[in-house]
Amino acid sequence: MEMGNRIKTLRLAKSMTQEQLARALHVSAQAVSKWELGGSLPDIQLLPALSVVLGTSIDALFSLTDESRLARIENMLEDRRFLTQHEFETEERFLQEKCMEGSENVRAVLLLARLYCKRAGEYRALASPLARRALELDPQSKEAHTAVFAAENGAYPDWNVSNHSETIAFYKDFLAHHPEEYGAYLWLLDLLLADGRCGEAREYAGRLRAVRESFNDELYRGILCKQEGRIGEALDCWAAMCEKYGDMWQAWASRASELAKLCRYDEAVADYERAMSLMPHPQLTDPVEAIAQLCELRGDCAGAIRAYERVVSILREDWSITQGELLDAPLRTIARLREKLAAEAADV
After folding, report:
1. Which of 118, 142, 167 is the last residue of a domain?
2. Domain limits at 78?
């Protein structure tokens, strides 16, 4: 029996409604409904309380099929800010076993990669405040500066540290074997442009157009112009892109991103807003998050708070997200910005 059906059966055996179970666990009734319908799985931290409320053991509740276990890991990676050491090691062992089976499990391979990426991100998040504190304690410490950059993906001036040659070589080889994979050209172009390899980028931009025409043609033509110092021509390319693909939110969001990189913040915000007005529901939050960051960058903490509140609203209303890190992250940022506003008001 799948876990959702098991939860429903045990709940009904206890003569409980979804609302009663939700209250007992301090979650929403919508979350319980999604568990029972198979749309999501309970967070691992809820299992002890869930097993007690339903009068069963965790083992009995949590005897999942491989597919359900993979789905639970996927939810964990998206919903949790930090994993415990036990959770990490348990899921690592399971995924390693799946990867070593006769026919390689593609989903398990990807999830294991994502698990390691998440762990790396967790350690960087833990390292960041410590590295900053070390620098405050010893302002002349080169090692502390290095630690801040390592934790926060700082920009290094040294070519031997900052170049992407190995990843570029991987994507070139990948495209040699998969020349019709449109998305791979975009990843490669971004890497080549980041390294200033404009000649090669121009070649792959041509190959991209040969696979499929899209707004990306004018986007990357403009980025190439920008890289070569021809800002006016870059702006013309992006204007042509938005005129030709004016009904596509992606075109406006892409131009907004490039305008932000040029410090043309007001124009960027306007384009991000245009992108949101064109985007169908359920909407992505990326353009609004960018607006929030630009507001804070310009010193408009109140505007940033409003933008992050929009992010929260989209997550709740469009995606029915009521808990987890996707929701907690903007809520933490709102709290930080409110504290900042209060401190500024106190100093006046």
Report:
1. 118
2. 3-118
The verdict on residue 61 lying in a domain is yes
- DSSP of 143-211: HHHHHHHHHHTPPPS-HHHH--HHHHHHHHHHHHH-TT-HHHHHHHHHHHHHTT-HHHHHHHHHHHHHH
Distance of alpha carbon 344 from alpha carbon 186, whole angstroms = 43
Q: Is the pTM of this model over 0.85?
A: no
What's the CATH code of the domain at 36?
1.10.260.40
Does residue 1 carry a pLDDT above 50? no
In a domain, 71, yes or no: yes
How far CA 106 is from CA of 87, 98, 181, in Å, comes to 21, 9, 18
Q: What is the pLDDT of residues 141-151, one digit of tens each?
A: 999 999 999 99
SS3 16: coil
Residue 56 domain-assigned? yes
Measure the CA–CA gap between 82 and 87, rounded to whole angstroms.
Answer: 10
Distance from C-alpha of 207 to C-alpha of 172, rounded to nearest angstrom: 12
Q: Which residues of 227-242 are buried (b: 16+ CB within 10 A; e: fewer)?
A: beeeeeebbebbeebb
Arithmetic mean of pLDDT over the chain:
93
Classify residue 55: in a domain, yes or no.
yes
Which of 50, 84, 118 lies at the terminal end of a domain, its last residue?
118
Tens of pLDDT, residue by residue over 43-92, are: 878 888 898 888 877 766 766 678 878 888 998 899 889 998 988 998 99
- All residues at 6 or more sequence positions from 169 whose CB lies less than 8 Å from its CB, including other chains: none
Per-residue pLDDT, averaged over 4-29, amounts to: 89
